[in-house]
Amino acid sequence: MCLCYNHERFVTEALFSVINQTYAAIELIVVDDASSDNSVAVIHAFLKEHPQVQFLVNEINLGNCRSFNRALLLASGTYIIDLAADDVLLDTRIEKQVSLFETLDTRYGVIFSNAAYINERSIVVSHHYQTDTQGKSRKSIPSGDVYQQVLQQYFICTPTMMMRKSVLEALGGYDESLSYEDFDFWVRSSRKYKYAYQDEILTFKRKVKGSLSTKFYQLRQNKLLESTLIVCQKAYKLNRTEGERQALATNIRYHLRQSYYTKNYPLVSGYAALLKELSYIDFITQVILWLSTHKISVWSLYKLYLRIFLKFRP
């Protein structure tokens, strides 16, 4: 599934990266989520040469989760890739991931790999995991039962994933009440299924100004932080061990701070309430909660930090 929203500059490259795969048995479903640019016309031009591609056009913007689920209803393949229309698959990506999946038993629901980050001119600027001279990751990447690691740290590069369709169907697809999909999918799927890491670069992930990830730093009414709180509440119910509770607490503290820095004060209270449920509320959290209750802001300092961080972030 290739999801497009205002990607007229990049969507053709993304679509050709699917068409040019060394693996032949591919079904491509494209969804345009009510783009305001020329994306639909660009995709129609591509379809003239590739009429086998299915194309859905949303009349109104539905968001990633609902758009993906529309495409999932049409999919007939065994495995699924969720491809953003500004990212690029390397030619052997699908062949290699299918080959690995065919060696794994059904306990494994997801494969993911390393990725190279490209800029808007398709030039490689960095890697998701730093590599050695042989192109292998310099550090150990979680694999197998990754549920606890998913709670504690961000380590999976979303566009590198290949998922069993049966897993998505068992989960009911993406949660359409959320503003983004990956954290919720990781939590719900890794509780039931194993993940396999493939140690090679198979995808180019594009860094674009104003992308969804930058909206985590949005001042007030931050829907992404709101969705993250909902996922953390789900994880609280799914947790089984003390280690998982500690991992979730680490995640909650981070997003509580983000909520405070960006003046999303009601979310600070929500995250703090969940920490209390976990019995992991600490002194710093209590201070932040007090500052948030009295709406004492550090937004100006945080905004300066973001300017520096986002400027130099790979």
From TrEMBL:
Gene3D superfamilies: Spore Coat Polysaccharide Biosynthesis Protein SpsA, Chain A (3.90.550.10)
Record's keyword terms, sorted: Transferase
Molecular-function GO terms, alphabetical: transferase activity
InterPro entries found in the cross-reference section: Glyco_trans_2-like, Glycosyltransf_2, Nucleotide-diphossugar_trans
Domain Glycosyltransferase 2-like, first and last residues per copy: 4-171
UniProt-listed Pfam families: Glycos_transf_2
Protein name: Glycosyltransferase
Gene source species: Rhodocytophaga rosea
